[in-house]
Design goal:
The structure holds 2 protein chains of 2 kinds. Chain A has helices at 3-34, 47-50, 56-81, 92-99, 107-110, 122-141, 150-171, 185-206, 209-225, 229-236, 259-266, 274-283, 322-336, 339-352, 365-379, 386-393, 421-426; strands spanning 45-46, 85-87, 174-175, 183-184, 244-247, 270-272, 290-296, 303-307, 317-321. By secondary structure, chain A is mainly alpha-helical. In chain A, strands 2-6 form a two-stranded antiparallel ribbon. A two-stranded antiparallel sheet of chain A has the order 3-4. In chain A, helix 3 runs parallel beside helix 7 (150-171) and helix 7 runs parallel beside helix 9. Chain A is globular and about 125 Å long. Helices cover 9% and strands 49% of the residues of chain B. In chain B, a hairpin with a 3-residue loop joins strand 47 and strand 48 (865-875). The longest helix of chain B is centred in the N-terminal third of the chain and has 25 residues, at 11-35. The two termini of chain B are 42 Å apart. Classes of the chains: A mainly alpha, B mainly beta. At the A-B interface, helix 1, strand 1, helix 3, helix 4 and helix 6 of A face strand 26, strand 28, strand 30, strand 31 and strand 34 of B. Strand 1 (45-46) of chain A pairs antiparallel with strand 34 of chain B, so a sheet runs across the interface.
Chain lengths: 433, 1009
């Protein structure tokens, strides 16, 4: 073999060996990896490491956040459905919501907390109920040694679970819990009361006055929904003057923006309902103050009018406040014949808002209850009470069923959101359509 | 100030590229010196049998050795260092039948071997890329593979990008355009759609390396207040690839062929082979192209709207004509300028092909343009007769401005315009009281790309019976996409629907696809008649995608365009996805007398997106090919060649990343605290979709001039990943992904080429293809097919993403007023009509064409003048014409269509659906889901090759005039049926203010020095 041939052979051998080594390395790596390929999402939390005692505060913050987002969505969804907001855009789903012609497959049932044009009602509330219940379940399984402020956290999460259930009961015709059977509103309110009982007990143990009052007022509202105004009033009477629990907002986080602001001022999806506009024109009541934008919505018909109370993307929204407790007491007074007591509460609120005193002649229970309803409408304007009030008081929907809708069709008589298909079809405990 | 796009390619890539180039040159020169003078030289010319012209880029090889060269512009080649002895020289070129010639080399002499190639669309000796190492000829393969001779097709069509080069040139390959705006990238479907929820685009490889094939990318705003980003996610990575650098494209169409490509290959594979250098003296080529881009007949294709004035007079309004009359044309004539410089040649045993391309196109709107620079280097080194190394290096830098349509845009504004409806001062009647100069001036959706694709291929033949190949490469894409709403000047500020102070969203994306592919093949002759080829291989693919978004609202003044200049920051987001596939395969092929071939293969894969409890998947394949025309008994003389083939194979589609994981999403909690909320429900058992395909067909040549390639395929895709909704009371929401469904596809494909005339003075070739594609959902895992609104839905028994709507079937029309009453809708199959409010949503049509085809004619006169025209068509599909729905059905508060004012001219059914109540409240919209079938005169060109006496100093000089998108025949009532909003999905089919594919008229000068 000459020198050149030998060199060539050596080169070939080296190349062969190199490729063989490379192939072996690759094959070894493959053998090790081929059955153990795993993925992890650096932008998401895995469930295995999340639900541990060290994360107790994080878990409760999260479940509270779920409620706040759900409440934000509910305010707009129920406001459009009833007579607080009116649709202003050209969207079939929004027409249905505004016209009260929603079907069980409509987006109110499936849209989530980030939804803006068509608010989610059922899914955000169901998720908020579940995450707060989950938080309580974990907290109850842990010990005080593991979670130093365990009682306080149980109180907070139980209270928000209770409020989630209140809104489910007030807004939904029926609902479900934990893939359980279909529940009526009364059954849901009963579940809410259980959460508030837990919250009251836990907050009392923890000495957490704010949560205690929040839970008491929630329980009072639940009792009112259950038709027990006397029991409601006794809880409401414990609420101190000036008490309020708000949800706060963020200017940029979609989930935490004030959705009334987004829906009306920013995006022109909706306007304040003309019935409120008319009330404000007549009373100049600051609780329902509005401002006209002068712009017509993309539906080509609706003048967009803003609610002054949600003037910015971070305007606070009250979940529970002293005036609610007072009006619960007033309602019980009216029911029990203490009409002057009720009128006194009403006039305190009227005076605080620069309104003339309520002085019916003759002073009757009917007149006082009617004024309480009117006070509640103004006091809790765009605070998630109106739909529940319409159902509880049996008020006729406005506009009336059968009235023509601006882009066609007529308003229906719906007064609650039907259990959505997404729950009915995928919940094994509920009969299929 | 114009928004400048800047991005930094990781220096490591540039260093790596530079290192590889330098090392190869040095090594090449060294080896050349070391081996200089060894053996003789074979030179010659490869010519076309019919035109007698030299064939450029034919591959000439000394058979059985790695020695070879590509021909230059005149068809000449030179192969050096050929060992002494008798050799067979073989010349190959796509579209021709290979030719062989025996030569005897003695010492260091130069031997001439001129080879003449016959045109043949179906050459059984054509080399096909199959995933195994070494040359596998078409005759051996049991499945259909389409091949596009890119250089030839490009010279005829002057296709401006890869998408247009692919379109209509291979059967069953549909390029789905989303919008005609420059910079938009299309989706591709091969044999229609077969996945309900995953991507239906094929895999793309460049020189053996898997590359980023994403669609629907581009800027976004993540702000509910942003309007500037209207349909901004239209970019796609397909058109990053410079068509001038492509030698050929091979299309592997389905699981039967793509088995050894494994998981993710069920949609087919597109193999792009770039140009290689030739072993002759340096050859410099220059191409200069210029031309215009225009919106053909915009005035005629955009609708004329109608409204009644206060006097009751019906006033027509055409926005294009109105803007023209104002002296401010809505769409200007854009321009295209492209320059391509190439250098190819060889240094000893190293060959090189280098090219650069610069293109700057201006669209028909001022905020739409493309500027792209690309560089390509292919270096190949024959280190020894047993070892050769090749590199492929591509770099692309693009700065595109994508414009806007669909929503708040000049186009939609014009489609829905009328000054009686949109009467705000200065709005010029445009919807929604926003003049066209607002979006055209204020909105800038930019997309900056830096992309590097590089690979090294090592072919090693340690023994005559054993060869192995290693390919390693990387494809890196850095994208800087910005949705900018500029600070509006005083004259435009009143038209701002959100803040006139502007806003910006910047999306930074980097996607890296790494490939390592080893294959070894043992070929032995088991007997004189029986051959065996055994291959094993292993592949590793890793895709890492990182994306971050930052943005802000309200600039303090004009001229600002950075996030840091805004007053309010938008929430930032960041995502990172890593997907890894590891797999291997074994394949065994037996050949009998080089006429009958049987192939079996098995692939095993794992993918990181599979559920934790699902480890591996296996895909089998069998195929058979029989060149029956070479059998001794063959007597059918008019059938020159006939190959029968059949194959069965399986392949998969991996689940989307993270869908198998149960996760919670970090969010901001109360008072800005840390928090989380329910995210994905996950599925530990999630596995890939599995496609099982059988195909059979033939390839033939008849009468020496007609080539036919026919295939019938039948594909069933099991374990379709379906998002099953979750009951919200569980605490989770959205869907859980489960392997539940089944989709069946079938169709046929016919590709034909006819050499009508092959005279020296007149050559005429007709090439055509035709295909059908049908898909049907067979199973959705028991999920109910509830259709509750008009739209695209997956329903058992219907094609994927079919259109469903309530359908008006009868109405009574007042003979005087034209008003309709007694409107009844389709009550469902076999049922009587019912009131629309209680009518079911019925099947209207499929978004996927059921048949596609094209015919191209090429006529060459006196070997100098070549005339070319391509007509293509698609049939059987529907497109949702939201333009017409909004105009005619009162979505804007009033109807703008002629039917709204002259209903007696229209059918009662159509008039019924122009009622907002019927169309929107009752959701009866079938009149607006329209037949999107079309025929297009897609390409026309004339090329004149200058005679030698006029091209002194050049090897070749030619001049081409070409035009695209010249004529459209369709019943669709929008501007063009070849559009679709929502570029991320190839199945979305909605036209809403979309710019149609733009026409081009170009002149191109080609010079070779």
């Amino acid at each position: 073999m000459d020198h050149r041939a030998s060199r060539r052979a050596r080169r070939t051998l080296i190349a062969c060996a190199a490729l063989l080594v490379l192939a072996t390395v690759l094959a070894t790596a493959a053998c090790r990896d081929i059955t153990s390929l795993q993925q992890s999402n650096p932008g998401q939390l895995g469930s295995a490491t999340l639900f541990v005692p060290a994360n107790a505060q994080l878990i409760v913050n999260s479940s509270q956040g779920d409620f706040e987002c759900a409440y934000n969505e509910y305010i707009v969804g129920s406001g459009l459905f009833m007579d607080e907001l009116a649709n202003a855009i050209s969207s079939v789903a929004n027409f249905d919501l505004d016209r009260r012609t929603v079907t069980a497959g409509a987006p109110y049932g499936t849209n989530t907390c980030d939804s803006q044009q068509i608010p989610g009602v059922y899914t955000p509330l169901a998720a908020a109920r579940a995450s707060n219940d989950t938080a309580v379940a974990h907290l109850e399984a842990w010990t005080d040694a593991q979670v130093p402020n365990r009682s306080k956290l149980i109180g907070v999460a139980s209270a928000y679970a209770g409020y989630s259930l209140i809104l489910l009961g007030e807004g939904m015709c029926t609902a479900a819990i934990n893939l359980g059977p279909e529940l009526t509103s009364a059954q849901i309110f009963a579940q809410a009361k259980i959460r508030f009982d837990t919250a009251v007990a836990a907050a009392t143990r923890a000495g957490d006055t704010r949560t205690l009052n929040f839970a008491l007022l929630g329980r009072a509202r639940t009792q009112l929904d259950l038709g027990n105004s006397a029991t409601a009033a006794s809880d409401a009477a414990l609420i101190p003057s000036g008490f309020v629990v708000n949800i706060e907002h963020d200017p940029t986080q979609t989930r935490r923006q004030n959705l009334v602001f987004i829906h009306t001022r920013q995006s022109g999806f909706s306007s304040v309902d003309t019935s409120i506009q008319n009330r404000y024109a007549a009373t100049k009541d600051p609780r329902i103050a509005v401002t006209s934008s002068g712009k017509i919505g993309s539906d080509g018909n609706t003048l967009i009018v803003y609610p002054n109370k949600d003037a910015t993307v971070t305007s606070l929204q009250a979940v529970a406040k002293y005036s609610e407790a007072q009006l619960i007491i007033a309602e019980n007074d009216a029911n029990t014949g203490n009409l002057n007591g009720a009128v006194g509460i009403i006039n305190t609120l009227e005076a605080a808002n620069g309104q003339p005193a309520f002085n019916p002649n003759p002073l009757t229970k009917t007149a006082v209850l009617a004024q309480i309803i009117e006070e509640r409408r103004r006091e809790f304007f765009l605070e998630g009470h109106r739909l529940g009030d319409i159902r509880r008081y049996g008020l006729p929907p406005s506009p009336a069923a059968g009235a023509p809708y601006v882009v066609g069709g007529t308003y229906s008589g719906q007064s609650c959101f039907p259990l959505p298909d997404v729950e009915r079809i995928n919940n094994p405990s509920i009969g299929k359509p | 100030m114009r928004n400048k796009l800047r991005q930094h390619v990781p220096r490591k890539f540039l260093f790596a590229a530079g290192f590889i180039v330098g090392a190869l040159f040095l090594l090449g020169a060294r080896v050349a010196r070391a081996q200089g003078g060894q053996g003789g030289t074979v030179v010659g010319q490869v010519t076309d049998a019919s035109t007698r012209q030299g064939i450029v880029r034919a591959v000439v090889q000394i058979e059985g050795t790695p020695l070879g060269a590509n021909t230059d512009q005149d068809g000449r080649y030179r192969i050096v260092n050929v060992p002494a002895g008798a050799h067979t020289v073989v010349a190959r070129r796509i579209g021709y039948t290979p030719t062989r010639q025996t030569v005897t080399v003695t010492g260091d002499q130069s031997i001439t071997a001129n080879l003449v190639l016959q045109t043949a669309a179906t050459s059984l000796d054509q080399v096909i890329i199959t995933g195994t190492v070494g040359a596998q000829e078409r005759r051996e393969i049991g499945n259909a593979v389409s091949t596009i001779n890119a250089a030839d097709q490009l010279s005829k069509s002057e296709a401006p990008n890869l998408a247009t080069l692919l379109n209509a040139r291979a059967s069953s390959v549909s390029v789905v355009q989303n919008t005609g705006r420059l910079g938009a990238g299309p989706n591709i479907q091969i044999r229609g759609a077969s996945s309900l929820g995953l991507d239906n685009n094929p895999l793309i490889y460049i020189d053996g390396v898997r590359v980023n094939n994403s669609t629907g990318s581009g800027p976004s705003t993540s702000s509910s207040t942003a309007y500037g980003g209207q349909n901004s996610n239209v970019a796609g990575r397909l058109n990053d690839i410079n068509p001038e650098a492509i030698e050929s494209i091979q299309i592997i169409k389905g699981p039967a062929a793509a088995t050894i490509y494994g998981t993710e290959a069920a949609n087919g594979v597109i193999q792009i082979i770039t140009k290689k250098g030739s072993g002759t003296k340096p050859q410099l080529s220059l191409q200069v192209q210029g031309g215009s881009i225009y919106f053909r007949d915009a005035e005629g294709r955009l609708p004329t709207n109608y409204a009644k004035d206060s006097a009751g007079t019906i006033v027509p309004f055409n926005a294009v004509a109105a803007e023209k009359a104002l002296g401010t044309p809505l769409f200007k004539t854009g321009q295209t300028r492209a320059y391509n410089l190439g250098l190819s040649g060889g240094l000893g045993l190293a060959t090189y092909y280098l090219s650069t391309n610069y293109e700057n196109d201006l669209g028909v709107e001022p905020n739409n343009s493309v500027r792209q620079f690309s560089a390509h280097a292919n270096l190949n080194l024959t280190a020894s007769p047993k070892l050769d190394v090749g590199t492929s290096l591509n770099f692309v830098q693009a700065a595109n401005h994508l414009g806007a349509d669909v929503g708040l845009s000049a186009m939609l504004g014009a489609v829905l315009a009328h000054p009686l409806l949109f009467s705000a001062p200065g709005a010029e009647g445009f919807y929604p009281n926003v003049p066209p100069r607002f979006p055209q001036t204020i909105f800038d959706n930019s997309d900056g790309i830096n992309r590097f694709t590089g690979s090294v291929t090592i072919n090693h033949r340690p023994a005559g019976w054993f060869s192995q190949r290693l390919i390693a490469g990387i494809d890196y894409t850095g994208e800087d996409a910005r949705a900018l709403e500029k600070f509006a000047p005083a004259d435009l500020a009143p038209f701002a629907l959100a803040t006139p102070a502007g806003q910006i969203g910047q999306t930074l994306t980097s996607i890296t696809v790494a490939t390592a592919d080893y294959t070894g093949t043992v070929k032995v002759n088991l007997s004189r008649a029986l051959t065996s080829s055994s291959s094993v291989g292993g592949q590793f693919y890793r895709t890492e995608a990182a994306q971050s978004f930052l943005g802000g609202m309200e600039f303090p003044g004009a001229g600002l365009s950075t996030v840091s200049a805004t007053a309010t920051a938008l929430p930032s987001t960041q995502t990172q996805v890593i997907n890894t596939t590891i797999g291997g395969y074994g394949q065994q092929e037996f050949g009998f007398r080089n006429r009958l071939f049987l192939t079996g293969a098995l692939r095993i894969d794992n993918n990181s997106a599979f559920g934790e409890k699902f480890k591996l998947i296996t895909y089998p394949k069998v195929g058979a090919s029989w060149v029956v025309s070479e059998e001794p008994f063959w007597r059918a003389g008019f059938i020159n060649t006939l190959k029968l083939r059949a194959a069965y194979g399986e392949s998969g589609r991996a689940p989307a990343a993270f869908t198998a994981l149960r996760t919670y999403t970090p969010v901001q909690g109360p008072l800005g605290t840390n928090a989380f909320t329910a995210g994905s429900f996950g599925n530990l058992n999630l596995k890939p979709e599995r496609g099982k395909e059988t195909e059979a067909g033939f390839e033939s040549e008849l009468f020496g001039r007609l080539n036919l390639d026919f295939t019938y395929y039948n594909k069933r895709t099991f374990n379709e990943i379906i998002a099953q909704p979750i009951a919200p009371s569980s605490g989770f929401f959205g869907s859980q992904f489960q392997n539940l469904g089944q989709v069946n596809n079938h169709g046929l494909e016919l590709q034909a080429t006819l050499q009508v005339l092959t005279r020296e003075t007149l050559a005429w070739e007709i090439a055509g293809n035709f295909s059908t594609a049908t898909n049907k959902i067979v199973n959705l895992g028991g999920l109910p097919s509830l259709v509750t609104a008009t739209g695209q839905v997956n329903v058992v028994g219907s094609p994927i993403q079919s259109f469903f709507s309530r359908r008006v079937v009868s109405a009574t029309q007042d003979p005087t007023t034209g008003a309709v009453s007694n409107v009844l809708c389709d009550g469902g199959p076999g049922k009587t009509p019912v009131a629309c409010s209680s009518a079911p949503f019925v099947y209207i049509g499929t978004p996927t064409p059921t048949s596609t085809g094209s015919i191209a004619n090429t006529v060459t006169l006196f070997r100098r003048l070549r005339l070319y025209a391509l007509v293509d068509w698609r049939r059987g599909h529907k497109l949702y014409n939201a333009n017409e729905l909004f105009r005619c059905a009162g979505a804007l508060g009033a109807g703008l269509c002629d039917a709204n004012f002259n209903p007696l001219k229209y059918s009662p059914r159509y008039v019924a659906e122009t009622s907002p109540f019927v169309a929107f409240a009752l959701s009866a919209q079938d009149q607006f889901i329209q037949d999107a079938s079309f025929v297009k005169l897609r390409e026309v060109s004339a090329t004149y090759t200058l005679p030698d006496r006029f091209s002194r100093g050049f090897q070749h000089a030619s001049f081409t005039v070409s035009a695209r998108e010249l004529r459209l025949w369709t019943n669709y009532r929008g501007p063009d049926p070849e559009v679709s909003a929502f570029a991320g999905s190839s199945l979305s089919a909605q036209d809403q203010g979309l710019i149609p594919p733009l026409s081009r008229l170009t002149a191109t000068l080609n010079l070779v020095f």
